[in-house]
Specification:
The complex is a heterodimer. Chain A contains no helices and nine strands. Chain A is an all-beta fold. In chain A, strands 1, 3, 4, 7, 8 and 9 form a six-stranded mixed beta sheet that branches. The relative contact order of chain A is 0.35. Chain B is mostly beta strands. In chain B, a hairpin with a 6-residue loop joins strand 4 and strand 5. Classes of the chains: A mainly beta, B mainly beta. Chains A and B meet through strand 7 and strand 8 of A and strand 5, strand 9 and strand 10 of B.
Chain lengths: 106, 127
C-alpha cells in the first residue's frame, strides 16, 4: 500500500521559516493536501491540489510538490502555528495520510 | 456555513457494533457542490486514519483495512449520514470525525480532500 512519510517533529524559532516535508513514491504525480491540527481541535484544511490555499488561510503558508516530496512552508512562523501537520493524498481509491509532524515554535 | 456534528454512544463493548451519525447543517447533504461525505478517526495520541467516503447517492469507498467491518449510509430526509463498525476491539478506541469532502481530478484519478470537519466524537471500546 502507498505510504507518506513525514518527520515526527520540527522545531522553529518565532519569525523564522519552517519547512515540513512529506515523502512518497513519485508523489509529484499525485495531488497532495495539507491539514493543520492545533491541540484539542479538529484539523483544518491548509492546502489542496498541492498548493491551492482555501480562503482564510494566511499567505505566510505555502506548499509545493515536486519529485518524491511535498513541502509545507511557513514564513514568519508565529506561536499560534504550533500544531500537528498532516499531508494526505489518494491512491488506488484509498485516502492516505502521512504520520503527522509536530511543529514546535520556541 | 456548513457544519457537521457527530453523535452516538461514547462507550461500546468489545465485539459489538459502533454506530455514529453525522448531522449536516448549513447546507444540503445532496448539494452538487459538496456531495461527498466521510469518516476519519484518530486514536489517542496518534495520527489520522481514513475510514471511508460516501456519496449522497450511496456510492462508497472504504479503507481496505476496515472494509470487512464498515458500513456507511446516507439519510437524505434527515440530512444525515452514518457509520457502522462491527466487531470492535480496543484498537477501535478513537476520536471519530465526520467530514465533508471535495475533489479534484488529475490525469485519471479523482483526489478527495476534506474541507469541513466535525468536532469529533470520542468512542471507547471497553467492557
Amino acid at each position: 500500500s502507498y505510504q507518506l512519510t513525514q518527520p515526527p517533529s520540527v522545531s522553529v524559532s518565532p519569525g523564522q521559516i519552517a519547512a515540513i516535508t512529506c515523502s512518497g513514491d513519485q508523489l509529484r504525480n499525485k495531488y497532495v493536501c495539507w491539514y493543520q491540527q492545533r491541540a484539542g481541535q479538529s484539523p483544518v484544511l491548509l492546502f489542496y491540489q498541492d498548493s491551492e490555499r482555501p480562503s482564510g488561510i494566511p499567505e505566510r503558508f505555502s506548499a509545493s510538490n515536486s519529485g518524491d516530496t511535498a513541502t509545507l512552508t511557513i514564513r514568519g512562523t508565529q506561536p499560534m502555528d504550533e500544531a500537528d501537520y498532516y499531508c494526505q493524498t489518494w491512491d488506488d481509491s484509498t485516502a492516505v495520510f502521512g504520520g503527522g509532524t509536530k511543529l514546535t515554535v520556541l | 456555513q456548513l457544519q457537521l456534528q457527530e453523535s452516538g454512544p461514547g462507550l461500546v463493548k468489545p465485539s459489538e457494533t459502533l454506530s455514529l451519525t453525522c448531522t449536516v447543517s448549513g447546507g444540503s447533504i445532496t448539494s452538487s457542490t459538496s456531495p461527498y461525505w466521510g469518516w476519519i478517526r484518530q486514536p489517542p495520541g496518534k495520527g489520522l486514519e481514513w475510514i471511508g467516503n460516501i456519496h449522497y447517492s450511496g456510492n462508497t469507498y472504504y479503507n481496505p483495512s476496515l472494509e470487512s467491518r464498515v458500513t456507511m449510509s446516507v439519510d437524505t430526509s434527515k440530512n444525515q449520514f452514518s457509520l457502522s463498525l462491527s466487531s470492535v476491539t480496543a484498537a477501535d478506541t478513537a476520536l471519530y470525525y465526520c467530514a465533508s469532502l471535495s475533489r479534484t481530478f488529475l490525469v485519471t484519478t479523482y483526489y478527495y480532500y476534506i474541507d469541513v470537519w466535525g468536532n469529533g466524537s470520542t468512542v471507547t471500546v471497553s467492557s
